[in-house]
Amino acid sequence: MIAIGSDHGGFELKQEVIKYLEANKIEYKDYGCYDQNSVDYPDFAKQVCQAIVDKECEKGILICGTGIGISMAANKVKGIRAALCHDCFSAKATREHNDANVLALGGRIVGVELALMIVDIFLSTEFSNDERHIRRINKIEID
Length: 143
Prior knowledge:
- By secondary structure, this protein is α/β, with parallel strands linked by helices.
- It is built from six helices and five strands.
- A five-stranded parallel beta sheet has the order 2-1-3-5-4, with helices on both faces.
- Strand 1, helix 1 and strand 2 form a beta-alpha-beta unit.
- The chain is globular, with a radius of gyration of 14 Å.
- It starts with a strand and ends with a helix.
């Protein structure tokens, strides 16, 4: 199950990602927002991240205007490793090396086609389980 959320700046791209998830029969839960009225991105980052921490969902996708603020908010939650990705290489590398469990996107930065490629790579790439990556991840976890 994928947790997905956005603020008003990421709402349009979130609708496209939802279409992609549905077309690929990937289960998801939408934590809002539900229209383009102005909202605060930390509220949605917290809901998506809590669903992952509570093991309701395996991974999350968060979208705001730039992806910056919502990724910063997500990374304040213990157990969350959110990666802001605007290219395919970063999406693959953050899954293989960082075991990122949240993908952050900028709805005003990336086009729909690139965003969907990034989502596809993020969701289909497995963590490497290399000892060096596990060691590094353990060093960045919040106490």
